[in-house]
Amino acid sequence: MTAPRRWILATAAAMTMAGCSSSPEAASPEAVPPASAPASSSTPTARPSATASSAFCLDLPTFQVGVIAYSAEVGAAIEGEPLDFKELRRKAALIADMGEAMQASAPPDVAKHFRTVLKAIDTSASNLKSGAKARDVVDPVYGEHNRPAFDAVDDYDCGAAVP
Prior knowledge:
By secondary structure, the protein is an all-alpha fold. It is built from 7 helices and no strands. The protein is about 60% helix and about 0% strand. The chain has helices at about 5-15, 25, 55-75, 85-105, 110-125, 135-140, 145-155.
């Protein structure tokens, strides 16, 4: 089994365990509560640039799951599997809508990476058309240029201790 295939299967298993599905209700921000929110905004480990009640921090866990779901589906093209253009466009639109609402309150230490992820998914989704090469859809998400931004957003934790 190839590394991308293992990653996709592990991601799918994690999402299944978290109760994620491809139903419209599961994809909406209202249907998926944040994984964990700090008990109070006075938690000493909160980053000073991000408040627990900001749109960014409240929606970050749902956004991360959405990006993982989109990335996993796009990753299927690496294995030569067909892509569901309609479903990928739907996921990309949900990510874009949520990201737009989050962008204004994105903490400075992750804001640039956050914008890069939004642009990469938009670029990938814009290439979802007949005759497009799989590379045009996959590279914005898995390419070396954008991968650090995806990793930074995926690893970001609003409640993490300040170094």
